[in-house]
Design brief:
The complex is a heterodimer of chains A (625) and B (205).
Chain A: H1 3-26, H2 30-42, H3 53-61, H4 63-75, H5 78-83, H6 85-109, H7 114-125, H8 129-139, H9 145-167, H10 187-206, H11 208-217, H12 221-241, H13 246-257, H14 263-288, H15 291-296, H16 298-322, H17 327-336, H18 343-353, H19 359-396, E1 409-412, H20 416-427, E2 432-436, H21 439-448, E3 452-454, H22 460-465, E4 473-476, H23 481-494, E5 499-504, H24 507-515, E6 520-523, H25 526-539, H26 544-566, H27 573-597, H28 614-617
Parallel strand pairs in A: 1-2, 1-4, 2-3, 4-5, 5-6
Helix pairs in contact in A: 1-2, 2-14, 2-19, 3-14, 4-8, 4-13, 4-14, 6-7, 6-9, 6-16, 8-9, 8-19, 9-17, 10-13, 12-13, 16-17, 16-19, 17-19, 18-19, 24-26, 25-26
Chain B: E1 8-12, H1 22-30, E2 36-40, H2 41-44, H3 52-60, E3 64-70, H4 78-87, E4 105-111, H5 129-132, H6 134-142, E5 146-147, E6 151-153, H7 162-181, H8 186-189, H9 195-201
Classes of the chains: A mainly alpha (625), B alpha/beta (205).
Chain lengths: 625, 205
């Protein structure tokens, strides 16, 4: 091929991706669908930009899946993986086994012989790691329970490919003589596998860090990138040589390196390659879809795809029930893995070569799997916008709890801020009525053993039920600035007996609270930043007490500033900014004068050495050295 | 007179050490002495949250309790008062069973802005230093401790002579060494006005 030809191909792939992915993202369908559609458009059935070379591209692009599993491994610390062993082997075995059986039964109904039917079942049992993980990551669901279970099952599927490859040739019942079964495993092979795996683990643990350290000394960033690629490619190659899945090998290496100091470096180096290769992979899947086949039998193909998705989702949902996934998580889990696997393309080719079934059936299987992949992003979107909101809205519609006690203190909002306050008060035996609007937070705090009522404190009747008229203090610690201000106004209007203590989310919130006349305002991050400055001053050699006083003198001034500026807040913006500037200038001048004259606020403790005669000054006994 | 070494606990209180000349110098002369434990209160408790258990344990581990501080308004800086209020508990330091400090020696080491001449009936401070230190002396008595005459560095506001300051510092050091090594006759020195006088009577080492 001419080099300009390569350039042209590259141009087409990149252009298709650059045009279609942003459009798909804009429509809320995720990048995967964008890539797939780009593939369909540039593929042989529409514009025909890519032809025979498509298959080669797919082979190269599959390496993106290997890299992706490396990255998934990097995110999973060994102890997390160990925790997932149940889902991997339990849910994984069930999923592959049940899906294969159901699909095989369906295949039998289509007049297939038992051997090929089982082959079809096994081929369709997998799900696309590329699509599932990519989409779960994009939606931010990878770390949810549903996401973790999905990863576990995907890992098992990767493991299962190896025995499936071994079994497939035996299923071509019609041509038993021509099967080329892999060599039965000898003890030598077992040793080889064990040796390679231990080499990956030991090398990952003890070799990678020192080598990367040496490379980092060269200060050539591309060498580190090259080394990261070398690591992944090398492991994939080694795994291939001993007949194991390269993706599993790199996943294992990823887990081993999850705790190394170079984890983020590796992640950053591999990430762009993975992204591009995966994109390329999806494009080539799109290009491989045989549109003419679909055109000739649209109803059959359509029902096959829908049937496949339904069967897989139903099996997954059942497994999710068995492993006690919450319903909302179970939907994520079963819809994420409903599509066919990229391994299906490999397995179909392998089966056709071994004459398990003919090319015609193979083409149909490929089309069905590819179409199920196209459908996958829609399933994700449906889950995000249609299914998941139902669960959260059902939670939101939860009735407020019956409040059965009246306490002197009401705490509204028991998140990271309110929880500390409530705990401290409890430790001093002060009874509090705690209200929160977030059902998950309420359930969590309850589990810890605190009494919390679910409900929206900003509603008049709920605040009344919580004892608004009898309580002494109302502590407002809710995140939402508008809700917090609303509650202040509600309390001021209907429960003037309540002393309000309000957490201010930021400075602006503080201004608005001051304008409402709230006296006790607590700026959320102020204390923490003061503590940090105190420690910084101490490490610079300040005495503990001096640093403490400096920080708190500053705090007093800053609080006063907030009060002064609040008066001008919300009037004229220019005027307000002018005031801020002036105030900052005053602060500067204040510090300047402190630095120049040096006594500062604590000058009484150390009067500068007197120039006058002792008799004249000894009337003042305050300052002594 | 027994010669066994005593252990000294120096409770240091100065809210602005970075500006201090005298107390800083005094402290630097004694803080590395063997047998002396320095407890810098403002450094340990910038928020005045005094750890009573730790402080009482320290008291029990030592034989001589020293308060070193500037003489603010005829008394100690605030944290030392807080320390007394919290640490010298009923049942520990005083009261029926409060005998844990019995037999210990107690010393005050102070610097005063005004000269000695200001601390007399004709001076601006009217009372003598010993009179003004009466609350400390009575505190020691109530706790069953022997009150030693104070170590005083007077007139520091007008003290220009660095040699004079340095000589106070080395006298202070010798005084603490003598208390540690038990080379002073306690029954004799309690008759004196200041510990400085006792040191003047000793031959310089």
């Amino acid at each position: 091929m001419e080099s300009s030809d390569y350039l042209f191909q590259t141009f087409i792939y990149l252009a298709a991706a650059v045009v279609s992915v942003p459009i798909a993202k804009r429509l809320g369908l995720g990048s995967v669908l964008g890539y797939l559609l780009a593939g369909v458009i540039i593929g042989p059935h529409v514009f025909g930009f890519i032809g025979a070379a498509g298959g080669d591209v797919m082979n190269v692009a599959q390496f993106g899946v290997v890299m992706m599993l490396f990255l998934v491994g990097l995110e999973l610390r060994p102890n997390v993986l160990w925790r997932l062993r149940g889902p991997i082997f339990g849910s994984g075995t069930l999923q592959v086994g049940l899906t294969a059986v159901v699909c095989a039964v369906v295949a039998l109904c289509f007049q297939l012989a038992i051997g090929p039917a089982i082959a079809v079942g096994l081929i369709l049992s997998g799900s696309s790691t590329a699509i599932a993980v990519q989409s779960l990551t994009e939606k931010g669901w990878l770390t949810t329970k549903g996401g973790q279970t999905s990863v576990a099952v995907l890992l098992f599927q990767d493991l299962a490919v190896i025995p499936i490859l071994a079994v497939l040739p035996l299923l071509g019942a019609a041509h038993p003589a021509t099967t080329t079964a892999p060599h039965p495993a000898t003890w030598f092979q077992v040793l080889l596998v064990l040796g390679t795996v231990s080499a990956i683990i030991i090398g990952g643990r003890f070799l990678v860090s020192p080598v990367f350290h040496l490379l980092a000394l060269t200060r050539l960033h591309e060498i580190i990138t090259a080394a990261a690629l070398l690591l992944v490619v090398g492991i994939a190659l080694a795994m291939q040589l001993i007949g194991l899945s390269p993706a599993l090998g790199t996943f294992l290496a990823g887990v081993v390196l999850a705790e190394s100091e170079y984890r983020h470096e590796l992640e950053a180096d591999i990430e762009p390659f993975k992204g591009l290769l995966l994109g390329l992979f999806f494009v080539s899947v799109g290009a491989s879809i045989d549109l003419s086949l679909i055109q000739s039998q649209p109803i059959l193909m359509g029902s096959l795809v829908i049937g496949l998705l339904l069967i897989k989702a139903a099996v997954l949902y059942g497994i999710g029930k068995i492993s006690r996934l919450e319903n909302s998580q179970n939907f994520t889990f079963s819809l994420a893995l409903a599509q066919g696997s990229e391994f299906a393309f490999v397995l179909v080719a392998f089966a056709v070569n071994n004459r398990v079934f003919d090319q015609g059936l193979g083409d149909r299987l490929i089309a069905v799997v590819a179409l199920s992949m196209v459908a996958a992003p829609f399933l994700f979107t449906a889950n995000e916008f249609w299914i998941q909101p139902r669960f959260s809205s059902r939670l939101r519609q939860r009735q407020p709890d019956e409040i059965d006690e009246i306490n002197p203190v009401i705490v509204a909002g028991v998140g990271r801020y309110g929880a500390v306050v409530a705990r401290l008060l409890n430790s001093q035996n002060i009874k509090t009525t705690v209200l929160d609007f977030d059902p998950e937070q309420v359930d969590l705090i309850r589990k810890i053993g605190f009494k919390v009522f679910y409900g929206d404190a900003t509603r008049h009747e709920l605040l009344a039920a919580a004892g608004g008229a009898q309580a002494k203090l109302l502590l407002i610690a809710i995140d939402d600035v508008e809700a917090s201000l609303g509650l202040v106004q509600l309390a001021q209007k209907h429960f003037p007996n309540l002393n309000l203590l309000v957490r201010a989310y930021d400075r602006e919130h503080a201004y608005r609270l001051i304008k409402l006349g709230v006296r006790n305002i607590f700026r959320e991050t102020l204390e923490s930043s003061l503590e940090m400055s105190v420690e910084a001053l101490r490490l610079l050699g300040f005495g503990a007490y001096r640093a403490y006083r400096a920080a708190h003198t500053f705090k007093e001034y800053d609080e006063e500033t907030v009060r002064v500026l609040a008066e001008y807040y919300g009037t004229d913006e220019k005027d307000f900014l002018g005031r801020v500037r002036k105030r900052v200038q005053t602060l500067d001048e204040l510090f300047e004068s402190e630095r120049a004259v040096s006594p500062g606020p604590d000058s009484a403790w150390e009067r500068p050495k007197a120039a006058e005669k002792p008799e004249a000054r000894s009337q003042e006994p305050g300052a002594r050295s | 007179m027994s010669k066994t070494a005593r252990r000294l606990l120096l409770l240091f209180a100065h809210p602005a050490v970075h500006k201090s000349r005298v107390n800083h110098l005094l402290l630097s002369h004694v803080q590395s002495l063997p047998g002396v434990t320095v407890n810098d209160l403002y450094e340990a408790y910038p928020r005045f949250l005094i750890n009573v258990a730790r402080e009482q344990a320290l008291l029990l581990e030592h034989d001589v309790i020293i308060f070193q501080h500037p003489f603010y308004w005829y008394s100690s800086p605030a944290i030392l008062k807080q320390w007394q209020d919290l640490v010298l508990e009923f049942g520990f330091a005083y009261g029926k069973n409060g005998t844990r400090l019995h037999g210990k020696l107690f010393l005050t080491a102070i610097s005063t802005g005004g000269p000695s001449s200001a601390y007399q009936r004709s001076g601006s401070n009217y009372f003598t230093i010993r009179e003004l230190l009466a609350p400390f002396e009575q505190t020691a008595r109530l706790c069953g401790m022997t009150y030693l005459p104070p170590f005083v560095v007077p007139g520091v506001l007008w003290m220009d002579d660095e040699h004079e300051l340095a000589s106070y510092a080395s006298t202070y050091r010798r005084a603490l060494e003598a208390l540690r090594d038990n080379t002073l006759d306690v029954s004799e020195i309690i008759k004196l006005d200041t510990l400085n006088q006792a040191m003047a009577l000793l031959p310089a080492s």
